[in-house]
Amino acid sequence: MRKHFLVVSVVLAALAGSLAVYGQRDTPAPTTKDAGAFMKLKLEHTQKLLEGLAVEDFGAVKQHAQKLGALALDENWQVLQTREYRDYSAEFQKITGRISKAADKKSLDGAAVGYVQLALNCVDCHKHVRDHGNR
After folding, report:
1. Other beta carbons less than 10 A from residue 60's beta carbon
2. pLDDT tens digit string along 89-130?
Protein backbone atom coordinates (compact mmCIF):
# COMPACT_ATOMS: atom_id res chain seq x y z
CA MET A 1 0.00 0.00 0.00
CA ARG A 2 2.81 2.40 0.92
CA LYS A 3 4.64 1.63 -2.35
CA HIS A 4 1.42 2.26 -4.29
CA PHE A 5 0.95 5.62 -2.57
CA LEU A 6 4.55 6.62 -3.31
CA VAL A 7 4.33 5.74 -7.02
CA VAL A 8 1.03 7.55 -7.50
CA SER A 9 2.25 10.56 -5.48
CA VAL A 10 5.38 10.91 -7.62
CA VAL A 11 3.38 10.66 -10.83
CA LEU A 12 0.80 13.17 -9.64
CA ALA A 13 3.42 15.65 -8.48
CA ALA A 14 5.31 15.39 -11.76
CA LEU A 15 2.36 16.42 -13.90
CA ALA A 16 0.03 18.38 -11.62
CA GLY A 17 1.07 21.73 -13.09
CA SER A 18 0.48 20.65 -16.66
CA LEU A 19 -3.08 19.56 -15.86
CA ALA A 20 -3.94 23.07 -14.76
CA VAL A 21 -2.41 24.60 -17.87
CA TYR A 22 -4.11 22.46 -20.52
CA GLY A 23 -7.47 21.70 -18.92
CA GLN A 24 -9.58 18.58 -19.31
CA ARG A 25 -11.33 18.91 -22.68
CA ASP A 26 -11.35 16.45 -25.54
CA THR A 27 -9.59 17.69 -28.64
CA PRO A 28 -10.19 16.23 -32.09
CA ALA A 29 -7.21 14.79 -33.92
CA PRO A 30 -5.39 17.40 -35.98
CA THR A 31 -6.20 17.22 -39.66
CA THR A 32 -2.96 18.85 -40.77
CA LYS A 33 0.67 18.16 -40.16
CA ASP A 34 0.61 20.67 -37.30
CA ALA A 35 3.21 19.22 -34.94
CA GLY A 36 2.14 21.52 -32.09
CA ALA A 37 -1.49 20.41 -32.30
CA PHE A 38 -0.46 16.76 -32.47
CA MET A 39 1.81 17.13 -29.44
CA LYS A 40 -0.99 18.84 -27.54
CA LEU A 41 -3.32 15.95 -28.36
CA LYS A 42 -0.74 13.43 -27.08
CA LEU A 43 -0.31 15.48 -23.92
CA GLU A 44 -4.06 15.69 -23.33
CA HIS A 45 -4.46 11.90 -23.56
CA THR A 46 -1.48 11.47 -21.25
CA GLN A 47 -3.02 13.86 -18.74
CA LYS A 48 -6.38 12.10 -18.90
CA LEU A 49 -4.64 8.79 -18.37
CA LEU A 50 -3.03 10.27 -15.25
CA GLU A 51 -6.38 11.61 -14.09
CA GLY A 52 -7.85 8.12 -14.51
CA LEU A 53 -5.06 6.73 -12.35
CA ALA A 54 -5.62 9.35 -9.68
CA VAL A 55 -9.32 8.52 -9.32
CA GLU A 56 -8.99 4.79 -10.13
CA ASP A 57 -11.13 5.09 -13.26
CA PHE A 58 -9.83 2.05 -15.11
CA GLY A 59 -12.11 2.71 -18.07
CA ALA A 60 -10.46 6.10 -18.62
CA VAL A 61 -7.00 4.61 -18.08
CA LYS A 62 -7.63 1.98 -20.75
CA GLN A 63 -9.32 4.41 -23.15
CA HIS A 64 -6.51 6.94 -23.08
CA ALA A 65 -3.76 4.30 -23.17
CA GLN A 66 -5.38 2.90 -26.30
CA LYS A 67 -5.75 6.35 -27.85
CA LEU A 68 -2.08 7.06 -27.19
CA GLY A 69 -1.12 3.74 -28.76
CA ALA A 70 -3.21 4.59 -31.82
CA LEU A 71 -1.57 8.01 -32.12
CA ALA A 72 1.80 6.26 -32.39
CA LEU A 73 0.54 4.80 -35.68
CA ASP A 74 -0.49 8.19 -37.09
CA GLU A 75 1.62 9.73 -39.86
CA ASN A 76 2.08 12.84 -37.69
CA TRP A 77 4.00 10.68 -35.20
CA GLN A 78 6.84 9.97 -37.64
CA VAL A 79 9.19 12.90 -37.18
CA LEU A 80 12.48 11.01 -37.55
CA GLN A 81 13.67 7.98 -39.47
CA THR A 82 16.34 6.72 -37.09
CA ARG A 83 16.64 3.29 -35.52
CA GLU A 84 16.49 4.84 -32.06
CA TYR A 85 13.29 6.72 -32.88
CA ARG A 86 11.68 3.54 -34.20
CA ASP A 87 12.75 1.76 -31.00
CA TYR A 88 11.24 4.49 -28.81
CA SER A 89 8.01 4.34 -30.82
CA ALA A 90 7.80 0.55 -30.58
CA GLU A 91 8.43 0.68 -26.83
CA PHE A 92 5.78 3.39 -26.47
CA GLN A 93 3.23 1.09 -28.10
CA LYS A 94 4.25 -1.83 -25.89
CA ILE A 95 3.89 0.30 -22.78
CA THR A 96 0.46 1.60 -23.76
CA GLY A 97 -0.58 -2.03 -24.31
CA ARG A 98 0.68 -2.99 -20.84
CA ILE A 99 -1.20 -0.06 -19.29
CA SER A 100 -4.38 -1.14 -21.06
CA LYS A 101 -3.96 -4.73 -19.81
CA ALA A 102 -3.29 -3.48 -16.27
CA ALA A 103 -6.51 -1.45 -16.48
CA ASP A 104 -8.40 -4.59 -17.55
CA LYS A 105 -7.04 -6.33 -14.44
CA LYS A 106 -7.86 -3.25 -12.33
CA SER A 107 -4.22 -3.15 -11.28
CA LEU A 108 -3.59 0.41 -10.17
CA ASP A 109 0.04 -0.34 -9.36
CA GLY A 110 0.62 -1.97 -12.75
CA ALA A 111 -1.00 0.91 -14.62
CA ALA A 112 0.84 3.52 -12.52
CA VAL A 113 4.21 1.86 -13.13
CA GLY A 114 3.34 1.73 -16.83
CA TYR A 115 2.52 5.43 -16.74
CA VAL A 116 5.92 6.22 -15.23
CA GLN A 117 7.58 4.07 -17.91
CA LEU A 118 5.56 5.91 -20.55
CA ALA A 119 6.65 9.29 -19.19
CA LEU A 120 10.30 8.23 -19.17
CA ASN A 121 9.99 6.91 -22.72
CA CYS A 122 8.54 10.26 -23.83
CA VAL A 123 11.29 12.26 -22.14
CA ASP A 124 14.02 10.07 -23.63
CA CYS A 125 12.48 10.15 -27.10
CA HIS A 126 12.01 13.91 -27.05
CA LYS A 127 15.65 14.29 -25.99
CA HIS A 128 16.66 12.09 -28.93
CA VAL A 129 14.58 14.22 -31.32
CA ARG A 130 16.11 17.45 -29.95
CA ASP A 131 19.64 16.01 -30.10
CA HIS A 132 19.08 14.77 -33.65
CA GLY A 133 17.82 18.21 -34.69
CA ASN A 134 20.97 19.89 -33.33
CA ARG A 135 23.33 17.90 -35.58
Report:
1. 18
2. 999 999 999 999 999 999 999 999 999 999 999 999 999 999
